Amino acid sequence: MLFDIEVKISLKRGMLNPEATTIERSLDLLGYKVKNVKTDEIIKFQMEGEDREVIRSNVTDMCERLLCNPVIHDYKINVIPQNMACGK
Amino acid sequence: MLFDIEVKISLKRGMLNPEATTIERSLDLLGYKVKNVKTDEIIKFQMEGEDREVIRSNVTDMCERLLCNPVIHDYKINVIPQNMACGK
What we know:
The structure is a homodimer. Chain A is of the alpha+beta class.
């Protein structure tokens, strides 16, 4: 069975985010007043497997080993069996 | 009224995504077989305003002028009035 995987990676609370700071300052220079800018990254992919929990545990390993830096990042994993995906 | 804004930026279909290619290859080297890797970016911020449609049009301007490159990026804008946000 094919699974759609979505990993949402964000910086842990309190980590400096220079990208967000730059966006906020640049928008301000253009005349837009915004606050609390945050940036997240989403990595989506597909994986073959039989069991949702096995997939989830594999993806957790991927996050810890490659996709995230567990020291500074939080991540959320979403595993959706292909036939349950919406809008397809 | 305070609005929560979420801008989801993805590459247009057909654009090369070296980051995704690298992720796919690296996961393969670690023994994980995944396919169709895609990456998106989410920029979240807050903005004061009275009218949801005015906010949305401002954010569209921000996207065209600063946040995205309209030549290579697609973007989706989500405007949520603060008191309607879930989980707060």
